[in-house]
Every structure is written in structure tokens, then in C-alpha cells.
């Protein structure tokens, strides 16, 4: 059974998972990795969820405020060998519940075109593609999504 724990970016399991995520993204993004990495700092994330199975961290996700009504989902990751078990969808659901509890109305996020598993995950969970926002505007390797939670 998967257990989802609310925490922050100081959680050592979250930090370890993000290191694995960054290593994966460095390979996928290639020359573009430095551009994306600048927007993925975790030091100030106050809303983090870590998924555990048998007391072992198996996935993570986070969010931060984007506007007074919208949050940006960040640092979603499940190691490849653990995918296909519903962990990422569970993480999204838990994040969305927390977002609603805090009074936000929706979520936005960015992922890369070289991350087809992430794109499929967001489609499966009701996210819709939107024009690239903020720092991702005009970046052809980015795909942005939104989901209304109200």
C-alpha cells in the first residue's frame, strides 16, 4: 500500500528523489538542461508530498503558488522501475487535495516533450495543454498544462 506524506523540501527522501529526477532530466534535456534546471530549485518548496511503499520513498511531487488562485506543480517523479503502479496519479491526487484545502482554484505545470510518460500522466489525470506560460513561453521543448480544481 502506498502512503503519501506531506512535508517540505528539507525532507531527505524528497532530496534523494529529486537528485534521481535531475540525473534523468540531464540525459533527456541534453544541452537544454541548464535552462530548465534554473527553474527547478527546491530550497523553498513548502508543499511537498513523498510517496512511500513499505517505508521506502517511491515518488514525489510538490507545488508552489503561481498566482493568488493558481499553483505550479513541480518536481513530480517516480523512478522508472516503479512506474505503472499508479504512484504518480496518486501523488497528483494528493497534491490537488492539498491545493484545494489551501483555497487555490487550479494547477499549472510544465514538462518536456522528451518526457512522454509525464505527458501521458497529465492527460490521464484531466490536465489540458495550454500555451506555454512565464519563462516557458516560446520554448519549443516545453509542454504546459492546466487543471481547474474548482
What can you see in these coordinates?
The chain is an alpha+beta fold and 150 residues long. The chain has a domain at 2-105: 3-Layer(aba) Sandwich (Aminopeptidase). Helices cover 31% and strands 32% of the residues. The protein contains four helices and seven strands, in the order βααβββαβαββ. The chain starts with a strand and ends with a strand.
Give the CA-based shape. Answer: globular
The name of the CATH topology of the domain at 2-105 is Aminopeptidase
The SS-based structural class is: alpha+beta
What is the N-to-C order of secondary-structure elements (H for helix, E for strand)?
Answer: EHHEEEHEHEE
**How far apart lie the N and C ends?**
29 Å
Examine the secondary-structure arrangement and name the CATH architecture of the domain at 2-105: 3-Layer(aba) Sandwich
CATH class of the domain at 2-105 reads Alpha Beta
Strand order of the largest sheet: 1-2-3-4-5-7-6
Oligomerization state: single chain
Question: Please, how many helices?
Answer: 4
- Main sheet: strands, sense, barrel: 7 strands, mixed
Mean pLDDT: 90
Computed CA radius of gyration, to the nearest angstrom: 14 Å
Number of E strands: 7
State the helicity in percent bands.
25-40%
Q: What proportion strand? A: 25-35%
Q: Would you identify the regions where 5 or more consecutive residues have pLDDT less than 50?
A: none
CATH-assigned homologous superfamily of the domain at 2-105: Gcn5-related N-acetyltransferase (GNAT)
